[in-house]
Amino acid sequence: MKPVQDSRPSRSQATNIVGPIARWYARQRGSAPQLAEVRSAATRLTEALPAHADILEVAPGPGYLAVELARRGFQVAALDISQSFVTMVADRARDAGVRVDVRQGDAALLPFDTESFDMIICQAAFKNFGRPADVLDEMHRVLRPGGIAVIEDMNSEATTADIDREVGSMGLGRLASIMTKVPLMGLRRRAYSPAEFRRLADGSPFDTCDITTEGIGMAVRLTR
Fold it and tell me: The whole model's pTM is what?
């Protein structure tokens, strides 16, 4: 099947978050409820992985999940287009006393060897990739046989009530809640529906695609 054509601008054009905006985003993601969710996600995502497995996080943002995974003994690499986020991840890993191989680069041209990873994680970023078919091709290339890519992002079919509940669960102040909700409303327009993502995955080299939805989110598991 021919890959779905996507007119979204590339991540490097659309979401190269740097400077004060990157620092603001990091503060919002660093609230106590958000960090609790990071710990829960680290457990949920890796429960079937062997000890010391190799994990790549694509678009890690400020790096909370990447560092948490490294704390648990996994071999972690991370790649982001934003130099601000690359610096944050490196600093956070150093402060935590763990190693994360963090690099600046394009998700559609991953700077890693073929069959390097047991798992790839990409959260809240895939909707911003202007070359999504190339990103899936690259994820498939760098995964080992039997490896899994987990893509968690917004669901374009999420309702405004779903977004209100999600923001309410973040433990933010009133102003921060407003400043978080407004971008989410805009990002929903960029997001995929489950049917749209399934069509994209069907045109990729992956063997299987499992999709679940909850709240504003959609979780996709792709097996090499």
Answer: 0.82
